[in-house]
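User: Hi! I'm working on a homework problem where we have to compare a predicted structure to a textbook description. Could you give me the structure for the chain below?
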Amino acid sequence: MQRLILASLALMLSAPALAVPTTFTHQGRLFDPTGGPMTGFNSITFSLHDAPSGGSALWAETVTAEFDNGFYSVLLGEMTALDPATFDAAADPKTALQEWLAARSLPPPRYVVTDDGPDHQKTFDASVYVDHPKYSPEPVGRGSGSSKKHAEIDAARASLQFLGR
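Assistant: Happy to help. Predicted structure tokens:
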């Protein structure tokens, strides 16, 4: 019995250690435009986006780092905290949308996908609907992509923005 209590206590105490961190260390090496390693103190802006290119910024922070032969180490999230919920939505917008709707007792999203183009070069367009008087009959988001999955993810991301998430 005593071992079970100790094991339970150990689990409860370690729970905060399992939480998503709000800060993290980043290390790297930068070179100046002439190819030489950077030295001294320099400002660097770090940012996270919801897409590989052309997406929206989810988080950004500018820090001053000391460079030694181009090498630097910075603690990110210290000035602008990293919200763990940001990563949930960015990593899986379809799940984030479904969870957002469920938390408000709304029906799950309904995706309507169409395709265009020859089989070897199709493009897909997705619309997301929420079958509720507040949001019907118009879609809450639209997206496109090179596959049905990518179009739905893009549409879910647009829906989250439209709904204010």
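For your comparison, note the following. The two ends are 46 Å apart (CA to CA). The domain at 85-162 is CATH 3.30.160.20 (Double Stranded RNA Binding Domain). Good luck with the assignment!
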